[in-house]
Amino acid sequence: MKLEDPEGVNDLLRVTKSFLRDHFKDGQAIVSDEVLLRQIHWARDRISTLKDLASPDLSFLFTSPSTLPSDFTLNVDIIPELIDCLGDIEKDEFTSKKTSDVLRRFSKTRNLKFSALMKNLRLLLSGLNDGPPVGQMLELLGKEMSLQRIQERCDMINDNK
Q1: CA within 20 to 30 Å of 112's CA: 5, 52, 94, 135, which one?
Q2: Per-block average pLDDT, block size 10, for the chain (161 residues)?
Q3: Model pTM?
């Protein structure tokens, strides 16, 4: 099926949403058609069947991590600043390049190692130590979902203090 065929795209979205609702019963997997299509387009060379979307390497696209890994090292006090910084990016400019540039400036002004910031941000977004570049993750999740996940993890950390 070609992603350029509008009828095929609608069918693909319908089938994919049904699969995601059945697999991720907590409702987190519900995303807009625009975000889901962007995720499918990105994942198309990484999957053979819809079931592959539920693999540990790709499930971050559809569900938030339920715990925070023990190797999270970012000072929780800067997370609200991080959310504000990313929140200042316009929705239509929330791209891998733009978010990476903003995060690089953020790390520099806060005297943080960029690689450490990105590692910890990946943990906040996905719970994974490895995966696609963080800027790409942010773009795939979209602005709203990215900020929501970061805030949820921040709340989780504060609740456990």
Answers
A1: 94
A2: 70 89 74 87 89 89 81 88 96 96 97 95 91 94 94 83 63
A3: 0.86
